[in-house]
Amino acid sequence: MRVYLNSVLLAVALSISTYPTAANAHQTVPQPPPENVPPEATRSGGAKSKNRPLWQFGFGAGGGVTPHYPAANQSSLRFLAIPTFRYRGRILRSDDDGTRARLIRLEDTEIDLSGGASFPVNSYENEARKGMPKLDWIGEAGPRVGFRWRLRRDDCVADGPCGRGDTLRLLFPIRTVFSSDFASLSHRGFILQPEISFERVFKKSELIDAQIAFEIDTSVSIISDHLANYFFSVQPEYATTERPTYDAKPGLLSISSGLVLKVSQRRGSNIGSTFFVGLRHNHHGLSANQTSPLHKADQTVTLFTGVNVYWLSSERSDSDE
């Protein structure tokens, strides 16, 4: 199963950008908050704080139990520990919404570039692929059209601040896929993955001095012929009595759903550290390559957890919303 390192484990983005947007194209005279409403509540119904640092630097570590490849019946425990750099530029960003390059941004619509990655699998680790070439590190990159709706919540005003409130997103990414063993780079086709997600950010908990959020999503993965061959084809030289020759077909790869819980420590408007835990379920029962000898499971599950700790941040604030 594909595991996005920027959403399941960690993301690293180093970027600099200056781009005039509608958000700062003109100055607006500040307006006082409505009477009898806490100042924090006036910005809690979905708007992000504009006092977050432009960049933050820290360290992240995570791990999870992941299937070896789509529709595999074997999983492995994987770990990753890397420095993390969060940057909130007006074009290139690494923030709560992932790592991406925003090309066009309207009020509730974005066209950006995004990417992902998944772990390699040695053939000796997997019974179904013994004797076959290993699966290398896989990377993805491509354009994405996204629509976002901030949903108003009555409790944001009645009970005080509740962070960004509720957010509904509809995403349409198409990415080119490549694999690498760090000695060479090979193109592996394309993947189309429309997704709908819902995020709720609860008000800050005084008990643990942190903000709690959860996100649920559902997506459909459709792959090209080249990528289907990489995962599911069996060439004659690798065929056995239990693994006959198979020519993979493009089409549906999986229908998946995920749930992520995040607990973020806050220092004023800054996020000092984030702990996250989640799971993802993939249904491969309708896969275009269900008859492949490498298709071993109609259902796969990924479990993951990790932490990001940021201890250095810029004095300059993010002014783009």
Question: How would you describe this structure to a colleague?
Answer:
The protein has helices at residues 5-8, 154-158, 225-232; strands at residues 55-67, 75-88, 92-95, 98-105, 109-118, 137-151, 166-180, 185-192, 195-201, 210-223, 251-267, 270-283, 299-313. It is mainly β. The protein has a single domain (5-14, 48-313), classed as Lipocalin. The protein is globular.
Name a few traits of the molecule.
disordered N terminus; 321 residues; 13 strands; 5% helix; mainly beta; Lipocalin
Helix fraction by DSSP (H/I, runs of at least 4): under 10%
| Helix-strand makeup class | mainly beta
Number of strands: 13
Please, what is the average pLDDT?
78
**Total domains, how many?**
1
Spans with pLDDT under 50 lasting ≥5 residues? 1-49, 157-163
Count of DSSP-assigned helices: 3
- Ends distance: 34 Å
| Largest β sheet strand count, sense and barrel closure | 13 strands, antiparallel
Shape: globular
- Tell me what the CATH architecture is: Beta Barrel
Assembly type: single chain
What is the H-and-E element order?
A: HEEEEEEHEEEEHEEE
In the CATH scheme, what's the topology name? Lipocalin
Determine the strand fraction and express it as a percent band: over 45%
What's the CATH C level? Mainly Beta
Gyration radius from CA atoms, angstroms: 22 Å
